[in-house]
Amino acid sequence: MKAKILLLVSIFFLSVTVPQAIAQGLTGRAYYKSSSQIKISMDSTKMAPEQMAEIQAQLKKQMDRDYILSFTQTESNWKQAESLGGGPATASSGGMTMVINTGSQDKILYRNLADQSFAREEEVMGKEFLIKDTLEPSEWELTGETKKIGNYTAQKAIYTRIIDSQRFSTGMTEMENVKDTIRVTAWFTPEIPVSHGPESYFGLPGLILEVQNQGRTLICEKIELNPSTNPVKIEQPKKGKVVNREEFRAMQEESMKQMMNQYQGKPGEGNQFTIRIGN
Length: 279
Hints:
20% helix, 3 helices, alpha+beta, signal, three-stranded mixed β-sheet, twelve-stranded mixed β-sheet
């Protein structure tokens, strides 16, 4: 009788510890594709609807990018995949040129869940910065909904957050303080037990496979787990002057003020505008 009890305990112990051991040594790469909805509002007397539609179509095509998330159990890095179309998205029609800078493909976002820190490479006013600060967890709400993404069963999670931001557009004389409501929908799979995700999204009990936020979608198209031929190496960003989150935000505001001073009043024909999109 004692032998049977010991055997059952041993089997139970193995069934519990083996998955945990696999999870603790889990590494992988997840490959994502982004797509964005572009909406441009302009004075109809300055640009015909068909010209506006042409610019929106050009920008949308160029802003669809490929990204790679490399991860271990506690660390990850996120960067754009190398491609020939890695520069800013540019569109022109009727004498108007628009440039949307979505970030260089060599920029890296590093995240460490163990010590709740991140490091991200950014550029402002032609200068490179390395933002280092603590992570800001999101208050995810699990909905209970599920769907299949590739071979994985994914669960739905959402969160809503109101943030303070500043808005400037050509023709304004000063920046406007506004309240933005951020609504994010994420789909994660507990079948890959890591709390990582694309871009700044993390903190769910499984890898985030899809994110929808304000007309932008990131969806995972391929996953490599514990690759043996090309083992996962987590890169940490190194380029740029080290600043914290608040210091970088102040620099962004200064950059907006400079843009405001440069483009006060209505734009003239042939002007080029740069719109920065990012965290």
